């Protein structure tokens, strides 16, 4: 990708966060690669960790604009904007879209409270010959509900928490896996991570973190405890990963998204009676 940017004088780079992380791993990326043609960088498909954004901005001098959309809506409906990026946050509604956060009954939730994203705008969803899927996606009198959980700050900024099916319910507490991932990836030893629900006899499920370490860092029980303490110091105590497994890589789709469902299924199969 770095060579393509240099050779063809690319002006807009639009790729998954994984691609930015991989480019940042190239030694002396900013001096060995000519990125002078870039005027804009964008990303989507999965949350952009704040450390990735900060390091890319420092080394390339270019902001990364994060956005979220869906196949059904044909367009991004929330996006960060140039000069107003808040690392770790997704952004604000794209002009023309009305976005709000609601509970399962369609009631709007207070600012600062996680809720299901519901939106209306110039695009919409119609499933062909799938009335049950249509009824699940378009609800509450015409609001599109793509299945994403967000928190909205007092200034109107939306921050992605997780997909609704990625919410981990641990002893009655709700833990958004990607929120834990963002904190883990702020630790200097962590390259990337995925946090999913692992079956637990006492709590039903607990957060389990699959962690890929940075080159030169060795896995150990002491490091696992250090990472757990790091999360405890940043988030509510019940959100820390009760289990940590160090892995060489994470499963991904062809477009670079982490396949958390594969990790969940593996944990469920591991816990199943034999």
Protein model, in words:
The protein is α+β, with helices and mostly antiparallel strands and 274 residues long. It is 26% helix and 29% strand. It has a domain at 171-271: ANL, C-terminal domain (GMP Synthetase, Chain A, domain 3). The protein contains eight helices and 16 strands. The protein has a five-stranded mixed β-sheet with strand order 1-2-3-4-5. A four-stranded antiparallel β-sheet has the order 6-7-10-11. A hairpin with a 2-residue loop joins strand 12 (167-170) and strand 13.
CATH homologous superfamily of one domain?
A: ANL, C-terminal domain
**CATH level 3 topology of one domain:** GMP Synthetase, Chain A, domain 3
Instruction: Evaluate the radius of gyration.
Output: 19 Å
How many β-strand stretches? 16
Q: How would you classify the helix and strand content by structural class?
A: alpha+beta
**What would the average pLDDT be, to the nearest integer?**
93
The main pleated sheet reads as:
5 strands, mixed
Distance between the termini: 46 Å
Number of helices: 8
The CATH architecture assignment of one domain turns out to be: 2-Layer Sandwich
